[in-house]
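Dear all,

This email documents one entry for the complex benchmark we are building for the journal club exercise. For each entry we list the sequence lines for every component of the assembly. Then comes the predicted three-dimensional structure of the complex as a token string, followed by one or two observations. Please use this as the template for your own entries, and keep the labels exactly as they appear.
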Amino acid sequence: MRLGSALARLSAAGLSAALLAACSPSSTTTQSTSTSSAAPVAAAAGNVIKIGVELPLSGGDASNGIPTRNGVILAVEESNKTAIPGGFSYAVDDLDDAVQGKHDPALGAQNTKTFISDAAVLAMVGPFNSNVAKAEIPLTNDAQLTQISPSNTSNGLTQGDDGRKLRTSHPELNSFFRVCTTDDHQGAADAAFAKKLGFKAVFIVDDNETYGKGLADVFEAQFKKGGGTVLGHEHLNAGQTDFKALLTKAQNLRPDVVFFGGTTVSGGGLLRKQMGDSALKTVAYVGGDGISDDTFLKTAGTMANGSYYTVAAPETSKLASAKTFVANYKKRFGVDVGPYSANAYTAAMIEIAAINKAITAAGNKMPARVDVTKGVAATKGFVSPIGTVGFDANGDTTAPILSLYKISGGKAVFVDQVNLKT
Amino acid sequence: MDVFYQQLINGLSLGGIYALIALGYTMVYGIIELINFAHGDVYTLGTFFSLAILTGLGVSGEVHGLALVGVVLVTMLAAMLLCGITGVLIERLAYRRLRNAPRLAPLITAIGMSFILENVMQLWKGPSPISFPAVIPNPSFQAGGVEIAAKQILVIVLAIVMMVALQLFIRNTKMGKAMRATAQDRDAAQLMGININTTIAMTFLIGSALAGAAGFVSGVYYGTTWFFNGFEAGLKAFTAAVLGGIGNVAGAMLGGFLIGLVEAFATQYIPQGAQWTNVVVFSVLVLVLVFRPSGLLGEAVPEKV
């Protein structure tokens, strides 16, 4: 049976990847993007520079992945309308890292290898999830391929010993960057927010993933520091769907708020839904950006109301700098921006700016990947829809902004914004 | 003590669903010694069929009185029938020709069937979780400080009724007798004039129908489903079947309830227990198999099915 389940998982990865690639609408968008954008320059195949997009584009994570991918598409289309040195043009090449409807580190690593082996890929945007990033960073570090994540918030990806251990081949040259803030900021913001709302006793649940556990641990420490009581901290099993026993345990401790560290598909949605069948029905629910997607609203149903979450990005409708971006996005895709669309757009724009510079420096020829990485690392004061962005020595953004939302009436309502400028 | 009883109820409801699925595993294994990996997905298909039928009936919220009984019966029986037919089709198309092939071949076919079903369901309803209408009004009853939801009673009662009915069917009907005979010795049964193909098809029909019932019940109980639901539940139910003694119907029930209870109590009584539930469940399995290699009831009732 062990063998059976291992086999099942193994072939599940391959089969579903193939099937999803075949039926996902994303691949057609990509192709039309690259062909239409390449047309005015009349570029030969060798003149196209690809931006690799590595995101979950199917399954429960797709409601986050697709609007994020669209941000990159918009950046590439806009850049192709400007003068690019050397007669190059840009194209989006996207790969899906979801297996059986959920982001998967192994497939993410495989996708990254595909990008690395394609000489036309000079930079990547992605991944979306921190545990996927953990599998990818050593690969991009080795290939010195620039990778900017719009949404990875786990601290250990870039900072401290954990971060150093991921940069095995080129410890001196960081190739992984992010335009969002980190979980120590997000967890602290969640804790401060919970305190501000008057919550005193919390029951914490996390999904035992890189992102979820990291966020929950920071929240726990910060909530205690702020004078709150932590009644319990439980971790979920991967694939768990029944939380009734866990909720019975929680309700007997009488928390006034439940904190969830993790994503909607790793249990955040179902946990909230099942709270509706327990004595915790009227208790508030706070989470990080992992539950900031439409899938959460769908999964939790009416129970989604009364939940709070943070997003490691500014609320674009409140930012003057984002007005043009928001309007252009709506015009291009016919829908409103997702929480991480502007971050992805910014990530791609930073990469394109660095590539343009590197092309000129290389005498209007295809630049080396490492030069692009160096260019991105040197980014300072980059004006973007999410404000003025730069990277510190670790590759983290120097402009961390967090937005706080509450769900009421089946919709996320912007509550507050914190700018944790370092 | 209240918490203990509350968790007992939680465990029994979860275990009831596991047990219903486990019956299908154990019946099929008992009769053709095949681990039907597609069975967990037939269970998920049960939730999908129920959802489609409820949509067809125009039910999207709570139903009361006689209409409730009607809706529950119609939906569940239709889901059972559709799942039963699916099971028979799977057996006819994928397994029958491999009945005398080396044992690995049908096993791999079963895994393949599982993927086919999963992907068909993904195409049908999309990859995201789908919410299931809350058909049953859910008042809860207070019994000595323990809160029991109507849904939980429904799950437990339905599971027990189905199992008793199955036991009676296997013990007392001609077809039940034929199934037991086929399980014991297929060739001898054939020589005695039993139609093996019909008997095996019947086994798949009943096993899959029970998975369909479990699908309906879990849809109502959790209020949600998605195409990959059957993987985890199928694995646990299979474990339940092995724990109870695979091939043994009473063992599958016992194993199902036991695993549900172990999960609930491990969550409650082990510090940070939620993450250890699988470890505890499989430790129990290993321990039982060390001392009773054929499962809890595997030897007590040597007769299969």
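Observations: The beta strands of chain B are 130-131, 140-143, 146-149, 224-225. The first helix of chain B runs from residue 2 to 32.
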